[in-house]
Amino acid sequence: MSVEMDKSYNPASVEDRIYNLWINGGWFHSEPDDNKEPFVVMMPLPNVTGILHTGHALNNGIQDLVIRFQRMRGKNAMWMPGEDHAGIATQIVVDRDLYEKEGKSRFDIGREAFSKRVWEWKEKHGDIIINQLKKLGVSCDWDRFTFTMDENYQVAVREAFCHYFEKGYIYKGNRVINWCPYCQTAISDIEVEHEDSAGHLWHIKYPFKDGSDDGVVIATTRPETMLGDTAVAVNPSDERYKHLKGKTVFLPVACKEIPVIEDDYVDLEFGTGVVKITPAHDPNDFEVGTRHELPMPIIMGPDGKLNKKVPERYQGLTMLEARKKIVDELEEKGLLVKIEDHKHAVGHHDKCKTRVEPLLSKQWFMRMDELVKPAIQVVKDKKVQFIPERWSKVYFDWMENIQDWCLSRQSWWGHRIPIYYCDDCDEIFVSRDEPSACPKCGSKSIRQEEDSLDTWFSSALWPFATLGWPEKTKDLEYYHPGNVLITGYDIIFYWVARMIFSSLEFMGDIPFKYAYMTGLIRDEQGRKMSKSLKNAINPMEVIDKFGTDAMRFTLMFLSTQGGQDIKLGETVLTEGRNFINKLWNASRFTLMNLEDMKPGKPENLQFIDKWILSKLGETVKAVTDAFEEYDIAKGARAIYDFFWTDFCDWYIELSKMPIMNGGEEKTRTQQVLYLCLDTILKILHPIAPYVTEEIWQKLPHKTGDTIMIADWPNHVDFVFDEEATSEMVKVQSAIRAIRNLKAKLRIHQGIIGCKFNAPKETVELLNREKQQIEKQARVEGFEFAENQPDGSVTAVSTDMKFYLDVAGKIDIAEELKRIETSKNKTEAELQKIEKLLGNEGFVKSAPPAVVEKNKVKMEELKSELENLRELSDTLSN
RNA sequence: GGGCGGAUAGUUCAGCGGUAGAACGCUUGCCUUACACGCAAGAAGUCACAGGUUCGAAUCCUGUUUCGCCCACCA
User: Fold this and answer.
1) Does at least one atom of strand B sit less than 7 Å from the CB of A652?
2) How many CB atoms lie within 10 A of CB A772?
């Protein structure tokens, strides 16, 4: 019988099979259990319209790592998955689909039909991202999968809205909001992306009256809005414009007279010191307009085109078309004084990238002042902790300067606002269910608000709405609050902050203890991934090419605790792939040599065994601590270093001889190998779940059905053996020296630096190296004496005497040069350490261990230097 | 205009008070019966700059330069 494993790891043949094994085992599922401590992670909701990007791969990878780690540590791990209806984002996608297939817009088919279409779309495409997520190997509790439009979830949303309304936090306000002409809806401030663009500052003369040459010059970046001007303003303290007080000016193009008003808002330094006031199309102007009770004509329709309030020749033009026409016209009339270049930020809707227009409009708002207070406090008190800590500053800055939240969207896909209007008595009321009559006058003539809620209103309830809230469920009691939220820092405002105040409001508790902010993933040059640059990496393609584990390992390896952005590309992914393959092959070697193993605890440990087990213990501790502290990369690095360098390069290589020797030695080595492999698989499982499971399933003496729920190793089970460790250091340097062709020369001269009394095992190890060098040396034409004294226990150098003939093959001049550089280097190092040790402060205040170490090092350097001198003397003779 | 982060080997990054580290790439050998997605040996760094604190600074402080983010109603 032999172990059947391919020469290299083939993820495609493993991943789906293993995932099904886990699903069928039901190990992802969690139920409340008072005897076990829960560990809860709430998944950041992917959008129904979404396709998986590398950001998902990163934060779901970390979430899965944390969940698998805690599950193995014996916690009742529950990871809540779900999907967001994603209001406007989805509406845009379906709207486009409708247009492409039937040439219609949503307005052509109406709310009912459109809504039906979105549901159909969701049924058809909603699973795409979920299936992609599964390819990542995520171990979330699919039985609990929640969609933010599920019936239960709708109940929660209505409850929350009614609660806020009844508390007086929700109000209808007439304000200048951000309007997206493409989506034809209001959006909130944070949904506007500002892009600096090279614009102009137009200086325009408003004459005192029709025909007059004289007038005031205003400066504006948006001349088209002058059609909605109802005043011009100057600062009351501005001496230049004292004479304007009480006058009116003539508004060119629109042909009407508007007053000159005084307001502190006007900046004396900027532009001409005179500002045109367009109350319906600029938030500041609106405030000025309110103070001075100015008329506020709205000149733009929902589609972003000028409406009937403007002269006929402008009606139906878009704002930008109107701008051009107005500027032309002003120029013709000689009213355009000058045009300056001016850089300013232009707002765009983050979903559809359309330029947003400020618009006076009636919308529903949520008062934030009260809600924000406790939400700030819990972060101040470290009840909720950001990782890395610096993000809490971003959180505070936003929360402390927060504006009321514009909740309503003129969208047909989402939670319809549960506000009702009575046609008979004008009563406005909320209702938790479908009301049949007005509670005040009993009229049946009532209608529901047409608008929907901002999608983030429902996501804000995620940490408890998924657990059955507003019902008082066992789940809610057991799982809330959660432990950690893992997400990109780009949604701190959208989601993290809103979950915090929502949980505090409805649950009286924080939603999670830690908010771990991942970096953003960029391309190899550090650029943002974008469609236009065509530099986006599709995780599905990465999985096809490198395998899920390789991708996950790469991402974890790069995701440092500082939350730096991550540069991802072929090079690093290849490294991850190589590591996984190395694991596969080390396991293949181990398993091939384990077939006749007697199970049991290894006995009669030799220094090499003690050494690898010491290292293993250290690694287990380092990894456990790192994962507990959410320092993922540190953990990944610890495993990588131990596994590749210590385990593969040294232990496996050195294990070949005792295995060949057979007998007790062999059994012992097999048992140590087994112990190491088993432990490595376990601590690597949270990072690379598929390979580790696949290999673990092949272990001859495993207990249990899956590595997923195997016990996490405990470092105290591995004793740290200092003597073995220092012996190993010596052996390693001896072997390295022997391996080196130049070292052969030193051996020949009898001045090798690694003379020591070695135990039998060490000498054997060295002999093995000797054989290899012999072979290589023969290839290079060296001669040897054949009969060597055997079993020498003392000096390696004596043992290597047969290299005598090497001398003639060495380029003496070249070698002398090398020795000279080497000597200089050693000398410099020596001086450095001498200086350090000569430093009184160092001896007094440095840790004694450090001083000792340096003393030892100095001795070593001294003897090395001496050897070099001796060697160069011999050579030059 | 405010705030945040980075600047360490050719490249990507770790280290964050005690003698400069890893991976990739590069050079030189090797298909050594787990792995060429591999093995061994090697070259490679004024730790951006200038001051300061300290016995000692890549590491702490203060400036400067530079790259990148985020926030902000100066028309």
Assistant:
1) yes
2) 12
Which nucleotide shows the minimum CA-to-C1' distance to residue A276? B75
The C-alpha atoms of residue A756 and residue A751 are separated, in whole angstroms, by 12
Contact A335, A205 (CB under 8 A): yes
CA-to-C1' span, A280 to B72 (A): 21
For A158-187, b/e burial (b = at least 16 CB within 10 A) is bbbbbbbbeeebbeeeebbbbbbbbbbbbb
Which positions of strand B lie within 7 Å of protein CB atoms? Answer: 3-6, 12-15, 18-20, 22-24, 29-30, 32, 34-42, 54-56, 68-75
d(CA A559, CA A516): 11
In eight-state DSSP terms, residue A528 is B
Decide: A354 and A193 in contact? Cβ < 8 Å: no
A743 CB-to-strand B distance under 7 Å: no
In this structure, the dihedral spanned by the alpha carbons of residues A222, A227, A230 and A233, taken in order and rounded to 10 degrees, is 30
Distance measured from the CA of protein residue A490 to the C1' of nucleotide B9, in angstroms: 34
pLDDT tens, residue by residue, A389-422: 889 999 998 999 888 999 999 988 999 999 999 9
- pLDDT category at A747 given cuts 50, 70, 90 is very low
Residue A179 amino acid letter: W
Q: What is the complex's ipTM, to 2 decimals?
A: 0.95
H-type alpha helices, A345-413: 369-380, 391-400
Cα separation of A52 and A133, whole Å? 7
Which nucleotide has its C1' atom closest to residue A345's CA? B72
How many angstroms separate the most distant Cα atoms in chain A?
A: 119
Give the three-state DSSP class for A698.
helix
Rounded Cα–Cα distance for residues A200 and A178 (Å): 22
In 3D, which of A67, A42, A70, A73 has the Cα closest to residue A138?
A67
Q: Which residue has the tokens 């000398």?
A: A827
Distance A7 CA to B31 C1' (A): 14
Is the C-alpha dihedral spanning A344, A347, A352, A358 positive or negative? negative
List, for residues A445-464, the tens digit of each pLDDT value. 899 999 999 999 999 999 99
Q: What is the pTM of this model?
A: 0.89
Task: Fill in the amino acid letter for A645.
Answer: T
Q: Is the preceding omega at residue A388 within 30 degrees of 0, hence cis?
A: yes
Q: Does A559 contact strand B, using a CB cutoff of 7 Å?
A: no
Cβ contacts of A615 within 8 Å, gap of 6 or more: A642, A646, A725
